Amino acid sequence: MKEGPERSDSPPPAFADVVQARLRALEDGALRAEQYHDIRARFEENEGRVKREYWGHNIPMGLVLTEKDRGPLKRLLRRPPIMRLHRATPMPEDLSEKMHEAAHDGDELGVRAAWSLGDLSRHTVLARIFEVQEFLLEIADAAQGREAKRPMSEREISAGIAHYYQQLYRVQTELNKAAHRRAQYFYMAGALLGLLGFGIIAALVGLTIWPFGYSFHDRAVATGLGCAIAGALGATTSVSWRAALGSLELDPAAGIGALPRLGALRPSLGAIFGLAIYFGLEGHIVDIGQEARGFYFFAFFSFVAGFSERALPEFVDRAERRLGSGASSDPLQLDATDPDGQADRPRTPWSPHEKAERPIRD
Predict the structure, then answer these.
(1) Is the dihedral of CA 28, 34, 39, 45 positive or negative?
(2) What are the backbone angles phi and psi of residue 338, rounded to the nearest 5°?
(3) Where in the chain are the domains?
(4) Distance between CA 259 and CA 183 in Å, rounded?
């Protein structure tokens, strides 16, 4: 009668408690078996039912893969259960330093898979990590067990650990690829939401400037707004295009919370780039050698500035050169003083062997 309140008030057991309870049950027989099953039931109630398990024969250690059902709403949306990997060794002295290091590397990879992958990829990668970890624990059980029938030699242990790391590296490669693709999808979703947010901001700006006598019927206002929209569309198109090709470089470690927020900034940055290139072209700061300067002319280059992060810095660099030297900033126009275009090329240090080829200047 006293066990009920204690069970409800006590914290849920960790997997190490399950391993220790199993060890006591094996040592004491049926006297501890009921306690072991009770602790395991509480563990599964908190972490989910055990789908795959491995228990050491010579060393008290365990490895399980749990699967916990989601809430009613996510089950209605057909979201798969949550899977986690658990490993525990109550007696660390039974494992060598190499075994501990290798096992911790697998644990770390399991944590990364649980937090950085989507549902289907997470299940696949965690199942593979379980198989690799199970292989390592079998080697440890055969090598370090006090009651092992045939202890493994150091050469066999080293070969087994090397094979373990080869398999773990393959799993890590699959994990990195899946995590990178998931990060791209979250970033692209943030960019699409950011485009919607930019449209709302543009409408609010239009309502704000209306009382001050500015209207979208004015050519300058309409062209500036059109260039900002073109830049935002260019940035969003760039993100979607690169995500579809898989060439969008992101850091999956940023987290699924930060990546959409960062992606939501891209349309606004593209709009700023579009306005910047519009001001540069309209103010003749940037000269690309074209006389036509209508709305479509400005909108096209604003879209290019938002689409490519390298386009605007190139225009700015050439504008700085023009303001400093008075030359044209047309990227296709060669400098009259440098018809071969050698000025922008990096120069190699002069050596004495170049005396015959380099003229002497006063």
Answers:
(1) positive
(2) -140, 70
(3) 183-334
(4) 7
Give phi and psi for 70, each to the nearest 5. -85, 180
User: What pLDDT score does 354 carry?
Assistant: 43
Distance, CA of 304 to CA of 311 (rounded, Å):
7
Average pLDDT of the chain, as a whole number = 79
Nearest alpha carbon to residue 165 among 102, 114, 122, 213 = 102
The answer to whether residues 183 and 251 touch, using CB atoms and an 8 Å cutoff, is yes
pLDDT digits 0-9 by tens, 128-150: 999 999 999 988 888 765 555 56
Rounded CA separation 181/311 (Å): 26
* Each residue's pLDDT tens digit, 144-187: 655 555 667 788 888 989 999 999 999 999 988 888 888 888 89
Q: Could you tell me what percentage of the chain is helix, strand and coil, using 3-state DSSP and rounding each to the nearest 5?
A: 65, 5, 30
Q: Is 116 helix (H, G, I), strand (E, B) or coil?
A: helix
Sheet hosting strand 82-88, strand order edge to edge: 49-55, 62-68, 82-88
Contact 20, 39 (CB under 8 A): no
Among 166, 158, 150, smallest CA distance to 99 is for 158
Would you tell me how many other CB atoms lie within 10 Å of the CB of residue 327? 17
**Confidence (pTM):** 0.67
Instruction: Say how far apart CA 304 and CA 286 lie, in whole Å.
Output: 15
Give the strand pairing for 62-68 and 82-88. Answer: antiparallel
At 2-38, the pLDDT tens digits run: 444 445 567 888 989 999 888 888 877 666 788 888 9
- What is the C-alpha radius of gyration for the chain, rounded to an integer number of angstroms? 32
142 CB-near residues (< 8 Å, 6+ apart): 58, 148, 150, 151, 152
